[in-house]
Amino acid sequence: MCSVSPEVLEMVTVKKETEMTEKEIYTRLTRVFQDVFDDDTLQINGETTADDVDDWDSLSHITLIAAVENEFGMRFKMKEVSTMANVGEMVDLIAERGH
Amino acid sequence: MKELVYPFDAPGIMKKKKSIKRRLLAAGSNRLEKKIAVLGGSTTSHIVDILELFLLDYGIAPKFYECEYAQFEQEALFPSEEFLNFHPDLIFIHTSSRNVRQFPELTDGKEQVEEKLKAETERFRTIWEKLTETFGCPIIQNNFEMPFYRLMGNRDASDYRGRRHFLERLNEAFYQYAESHDNFYINDMEYLAADYGLKEWTNPYYWNMYKYCMCPDAIPAFAFSVAHIIKSIWGRNKKALALDLDNTLWGGVIGDDGQDGIDIGQENGVAQSYYEFQSYLKQLKPLGVLLTVDSKNEEENAREGLLHPDGVLKPDDFVVIKANWENKDRNLLQIASELNILPESIVFVDDNPAERAIVEGQIDGVVAPVMDSVENYITTLDRNGFFEVTSFSEDDLKRNDMYKANALRNSARADFADYGDYLKSLEMTATIRDFDSVYLARIAQLTNKSNQFNLTTRRYTLSEIEAIRENPNYIRLYGKLVDKFGDNGVVSVVIGEIRGKELHIDLWLMSCRVLKRGMEQAMLDQLVEKCTDAGIETIYGYYYPTKKNKMVKELYQTFGFIRISENENGDTVWKLETAGYEKQNHYIQVQ
């Protein structure tokens, strides 16, 4: 017997239909970067790495990861956090698991 | 700053800490500069960053020293050159249950566990004693959060081998130390973690990945708590609550619904919630928190509401009641001036967002937390730590009565045409003496709280006051004032440093609740007498202007001192020859 109400089931289906486009992800992600690094002009692309952004040190990396997770309602796995090479890889993971 | 008042958006604070800091620095200057050493058993940089935000918001500009990663113990026992040269004003020991060296094993006997407990307690005690001996400044120490797993399940709480049981006993040992040592404060991480949610707080992801002893989003709540203790030590607590009535102290509108129609008491859930809130407020009174009313109402209706038979708070519980149709910011300023406290030391409590916006907009520094629903009222006031208790004196217990007595004095004054006759009628007696051990806590508290009648605004910790008391190169006076309406407690402090035949006044302060009573003259008479006995010929007074102490700009002038210099900051230096001094106090009998 299914204990989930029809309303909830419907919500789940609706969610699936509203998958994010890559462009949407970049728009929201750019805003997160701008907040974390306090720089409204900051722009990112798939190739961006820590070397390209002033102040992107280990401390702000932790802030950034947490802020991205909160923004997209998801968690990165430990392995992913330590091996993520650039923003592009981050976006791939968000596309896979984010909301 | 609104973002830093509970309930706050913790992830938002973490994310935007840079812009928040930028805006805080732009908004204020003239902050109290303090040096804070953080000795951690885990990563501390993030905690320091967020702690800085809250302290800046409290008007404290911190400079931090952080020890190398997890070196809290080594740094305390063998302080580095850098640490020694830092000369901290305060030390915060940031340890967690991750730093416990030896937990009990299931194979341990009772004696072995006792040994482990003793070893761990001694380890920390040694750290605290060494730090106190080296730096003599206040210490804040975390207690331990509960462990994130329990090997024996529920039995972990009661069995001597349980980690949970062990940590609780360790905490108990910390509290015993706190009870018997001034200047040592526990930051209640155990409560904070429970409040936040232990499972998320202790998520091992963050320890294993970053060596954080809590999850990042818990850092704001944690740093907020540490900031409460720090600002309380340095006298930045709030002093009073200005409370709205309708839908704040009771449900409904007294003017429309009448006494029978408002929700307060045990009738239903809503009435019980307001009853609980009123009880909470009443319990704040012995801490010295002043309760006042700031409400748009007919005064008669307001009183009727407060006289509701099922209510907890009665008109007598308030030191001032402003119920009228005046704007609330005006009433709040009026309350501040009647109580002789600064408007920014009052918290405005009102369910109406429009009223809160007006008051916050009109009066700089007044906090008006979001009061959205009665079941949240207590938590909102409580978590904001407005009245964080770091010292608890006899005076706090009596404060509401003292302010009430002041109101009686003021109304008595109206009966006298001549102010001198009024002062005589008060039948005042003062005790003015060298520092007495029972009043040291109150004296230190006063040096940190007094802003208006304070010539140099020098702040002293309890240990500094103790040191001055032992030092023969100082003349020290405290003044206590009693009159026919009651005991005002210790209200004035003077500290002067002896240099040959000169006395230099480092500190002269008085509580504003005894303004215009002749107490300052009585203090001066005693000071001059002490100086004459000590062979001192000249007394030098200093006035350093701040935003708040204008009222004493000319104090030395009224005392008959001569101004000898003034610099571009407006700092003035004054002197008085003790020879030929004539007593200036005529109304207070001095013991």
Spatial order of the strands forming the largest sheet of chain B: 15-16-14-13-12-11-10-17
Give the class of chain B from helix and strand content and strand pairing: alpha/beta
Name the chain pair with the biggest interface and residue counts per chain. Answer: A-B, 14 and 18 residues
CATH level 1 class label of the largest domain in chain B: Alpha Beta
Helix/strand-derived category of chain A reads: mainly alpha
**What is the approximate shape of chain A?**
globular
- What amount of the residues of chain A lies in strands? under 5%
For the secondary structure, the number of strands of chain A is 0
Largest sheet of chain A: none
Q: What is the domain total for the residues of chain A?
A: 1
Q: Write down the CATH topology of the largest domain in chain B.
A: Rossmann fold
How many domains of chain B? The number is: 3
By CATH reckoning, the class of chain A would read: Mainly Alpha
Q: How many individual helices of chain A? A: 5
Report the order of strands and helices of chain A: HHHHH
- Distance between the first and last residues' Cα of chain B: 47 Å
CATH superfamily of the largest domain in chain B: SGNH hydrolase
Q: Judging by the overall fold, what is the CATH architecture of the largest domain in chain B?
A: 3-Layer(aba) Sandwich
Oligomeric grouping of the chains: heterodimer
Q: What form of chain B results from the Cα inertia axes?
A: globular
- Can you tell me the CATH superfamily of chain A? ACP-like
Describe the structure.
The complex is a heterodimer of chains A (99) and B (591). Helices cover 60% and strands 0% of the residues of chain A. Chain A has helices spanning 6-17, 22-36, 58-72, 78-83, 87-97. In chain A, helix 2 (22-36) packs across helix 3 (58-72). The two termini of chain A are 29 Å apart. Chain B has three domains: 2-233, 3-Layer(aba) Sandwich (Rossmann fold); 240-383, Rossmann fold, CATH 3.40.50; 415-590, 3-Layer(aba) Sandwich (Aminopeptidase), CATH 3.40.630.30. Chain B has an eight-stranded mixed beta sheet with strand order 15-16-14-13-12-11-10-17, sandwiched between helices. The interface between A and B is medium-sized, with 14 and 18 residues.
